[in-house]
C-alpha cells in the first residue's frame, strides 16, 4: 500500500472544500436558516395563540358557569315568587268564598225568617177565619167581622206570649 501524500491534491481538496462550504453557506445556509426561523416563529405564534385561546376558553367557561348559576338562582326566585303569588291568590279566593258563603247564609237566614213570618201570618189569618166560622156556628148568629177579628187577635197574642 502506497500512501503517498500529494501536496497539490491536498491543497486542491482543501480549496474545493472551502469553496463548497462558501457555496453551501451562500446558497443553502441562509435560506435554510431563514426557513427554520420562519418555522420557529410560526410555531411560537401557534403556541401563543393556543395559550390565548386556552385563556379565552377558560374565561368563557367561567362566564358560562356564572351565567348558569345566575340563571338557576333567578329561576328559583321566579318559582318562589309564583309560589307566593299562587298562595296569595289561593288565600284571596278562599276569603272571597268565605265572604260569599256568609252573605249567602245571611240571605238564607233572612229569607227563612221572612218565610217564617209569612207562614205565621198565614196561620194567624187561617186561625182567625176558622175561629170566625166556628163562633158563628156556635153562636148561631153573625158577629161583626171587625170585632170578631179583634177578639181573636187578642186571644192569639195572649196564647202566643
Notes on the protein architecture:
The protein is mostly helical and 161 residues long. Helix content is 93%, strand content 0%. The protein is rod-shaped. The mean pLDDT is 85.
Blueprint of the fold:
Blueprint: H1 7-139, H2 145-160
What percentage of amino acids are in beta strands?
under 5%
* Shape summary: rod-shaped
- Overall mean pLDDT stands at 85
Q: Percent of residues in helical segments?
A: over 70%
Give a summary of the structure in a few sentences.
The protein has 161 residues and is mainly alpha-helical. It has helices spanning 7-139, 145-160.
List keywords for this structure.
0% strand; 161 residues; 93% helix; mainly alpha
